[in-house]
Input
Amino acid sequence: MTATDQTAQTPDQVLDDALKALAERSYFSRYPESPSPRVYGENAAPEGLSAYEAHLGKPFEGLAGAFDGSSVGDEVSPYGPTLGVAYPHLDVDAAMQAASTAIPAWRDAGARKRATVLVEALDALNERSFEIGNAVHHTSGQPFVMAFQAGAPQAQDRGLEAVAAAYAEQARVPESVTWEKPGKGEPLRMRKDYRIVPRGVALVVGCNTFPTWNAYPGIFASLATGNAVVVKPHPRAILPLAMTVETLQKTLQDNGFDPQLVQLAPEADGEGLAKTLAERDEVKIIDYTGGPGFGGWLEREGAARGQQVYTEKAGVNTVVVDSTDNLKAMLGNLAFSLSLYTGQMCTTPQNIYLPKGGIDTDEGHVSFEEFGQKLGGAIGRLTGDDEKAVEILGATVNDDVRSRAGSLASIAADAGGSVVADSREVTHPKYPDAVVRTPGLVGVDVAARDAYTTEQFGPVTFLIGTDSTQQSLDTFAETVRRHGAMTASVYSTDEGVLDAARDAAVDAGVALSENLLGQVFVNQTAAFSDYHGTGANPAANSAYSDSAFVAGRFRVITARRHV
Output
């Protein structure tokens, strides 16, 4: 029994429900995020783990594609174990030919058929949620429950959102109309037929930290609009997307379509395959999540080549603290936001601005120094027990993150600041080789712009002392305009300050969360309701999933005649 069995619907019904939720921005989730046996069945978790383990130490079989006979793959879990999975290496020339050949039948099936086939594929992926969750856990370092939720059902919901958004945009175009222009006698009549056509081959370049969550919107939006897709995973996170491509290929084939509409392109060490693929004439769409260097190159070169490029890059997420009527809840909310997955999220706050003179709270006036101590204490209480902490922190994903976590004193010294709370090493009870760290806090003056305007990906947070809340807001807006952000947050009991924060967020082009105290955190977004990113600042040029994210993936060709 699967979660989707509990609410059995046809793909058409699911699509209609998703379209309604998208239009209303209301709560909707096709795929339950709880890994409870009551939801997914008593045997789902052990069977999923066994299915994951069955892939280890052997070639990954079951993929269709144009391969060159060699294999790649050297994934090592951030928790220590070597995965040892070998993946077939793509023959790029043959793969592009196969993808191009597969497009016409998929294109001619029409938007509704494509959408319902993709709903079937998402339901099939949901049945593999525990298998995929384990793969995300051991390639990204996310704690397991988070890896299950973000890597499987939440990613699937984001995929469904992209399908619905793509279908809604295509459905705006009628198939055929009779056009009449009034005249002195009979009106001039013409029949005009409109045909949705895909751009061509889409390239999706995956990331290490969220291999499925960040890839599914692009994969499903491009497929829903009739394109073929080549998926280039991050070299350290291939397995979750290999499972995804395998499932998509089987669903496509079961519905009479060429499975090579979707192909996996794993990369050999140092190969530079993403650049090679991006420069192919067949590639018309690129989705990228990663660092600003290659992302900026894709944007510049893609524009010159006439490609549609969607990127999510680096940013400096911000919290402005003015005042609060629930200090304990605010500190708890911030502590969890900073600790979740060791700050290795594109939405984790990095810069916390508050006046040097402190803030007013329900517990009295709290100085700048006291605020730092109290926030450090809240983090310590949340992560003080190693066995519980690892289920929040996960494992550090690469050496860069580990280096930053161990260099807080140097970071603080370079900025003329001080370490408010150091990053503590945590021992994982099950994986002794995992490098697990708690968030660290560095106190700096607002003048130390060189320090806090650069993304410090991982467990590094700056407490930035300003002359006033107004300076906090001004610096926030100016910094995000120049350097980008995926999230922003404000805490204040003053409606005037909240209004000013909204204006600053609009000026900066970033979504704003206000006075989050409970079980909603700034680094979480809900599919069908919250836009992930805005496309209005340098951190990302797109949003999951607005009309701009899908409309550029297809074109409309008109044929007309007199009637």
DSSP finds 21 helices and 21 strands in the chain. The chain has a mean pLDDT of 96. The longest strand covers residues 188-198.
